[in-house]
Amino acid sequence: MFYNILDWLYNTSYAEMMRDSLWGYPIGETVHLFGITLLFGSILLADLRFIGIARHIPAGALSGGYLLRATWIGFALIVLSGLSLFAAYAIDTINSPIFIAKIALIAVAGVNMLFFTFRVSNGMHLWDRDVTPPTAARISAALSIALWTLTIFAGRLIAYPEIFETAS
Amino acid sequence: MSLVEVIHNSAYAAHIRESQYIYPLMQCVHITGLAMFAGGVALVNVRVAGLGSAVPLVDLGRHAMRVAWIGLAMIVLTGVNMAASFLEVFAVSTVMQVKLGFILLALANAVILQRGLAGAGGAPWAISPPDPAAARKWAALGIAVLLTIITLGKLLAYIGGKD
């Protein structure tokens, strides 16, 4: 069933264009990098503040009014290009252990983000100038940086399946 | 033997080239650094142009530029090693030369931002920040340069370079 859907996706004319046209895949990869730059750049700046670095910046204004917009634009670019790149080689990609690891990392990063948003950040307006956020926020922010960094690593390594071939 | 050949054929370059892991891991660090440098510089450009004015310009700028400079160090360190490991390819690559030209422009952008945000006698922009309307076209140009560098970097995987 799942493979039928992937098979259908692989055979759509859009996936075929991504796979076989001269520019489809390179453009998809480039847009993916634009998105990574916006998403990771903005998340890193916010998380460092949440950890307690650059404490003189009011956390609420930094995150809510400014960086979060960049994060969402980056996310949109990543999802659009990512689905396109995935469709082009759907079956090969789903069988790649490092791709599965990447999706797992994104899922954990997403849960961590939800935890931060709904359990930790309700006091963010109090993290004004020179206020260090509570420990739970600092741990969540550090985890966020680690998870997104590993996601970038895993994403690049999808291009090297030979590294992850099990000796069999 | 030319210098390019000497470097390309050195044991060090060969070690990077022939290892299954080193080059891919350098790419991982390169992309992480890229997101830090381009992300940081782009966000400061956007702030100078007037977006996110609830965040203090100088505080935000210094924070973002610190991240950007660390990112640049990661980019240069890995970039130099990757280029050295396939120098006979990269040294004659037009895409690479154009990319290096745009990198100089991005560095100029970063230095201009840094000089506004930090100085021996305090930040010039703490006293007189740039007019957002006037800064807008420069910010747009700076971001266009960053996007061009990323595009050319990706293009190197296809033309005149190495994946």
Topology:
The complex is a heterodimer of chains A (168) and B (163).
Chain A: H1 2-11, H2 13-20, H3 24-51, H4 59-88, H5 90-94, H6 97-120, H7 135-157
Chain B: H1 3-8, H2 11-18, H3 22-48, H4 57-85, H5 87-90, H6 94-117, H7 124-127, H8 132-155
Helix pairs in contact in B: 2-4, 3-4, 3-8, 4-6, 6-8
Description:
The complex is a heterodimer of chains A (168) and B (163). Chain A is 76% helix and 0% strand. Chain A has 168 residues and is mostly helical. Chain A has one domain (2-164). Chain A is elongated, with a radius of gyration of 19 Å. With 163 residues, chain B is mainly α. Chain B has one domain. Chain B is elongated, with a radius of gyration of 18 Å. Classes of the chains: A mainly alpha (168), B mainly alpha (163). The A-B interface holds A 26, 29-30, 33-34, 36-42, 44-45, 48-49, 53-54, 56-58, 61-62, 65-67, 70, 149, 152-153, 156-157, 159-160, 162-163 and B 20-21, 24-25, 27-28, 31-32, 34-36, 38-40, 42-43, 46-47, 51-52, 54-56, 59-60, 62-64, 66-67, 146-147, 150-151, 153-155, 157-158, 163.
Question: In brief, what are we looking at here?
Answer:
The complex is a heterodimer of chains A (168) and B (163). Chain A is mainly α and 168 residues long.
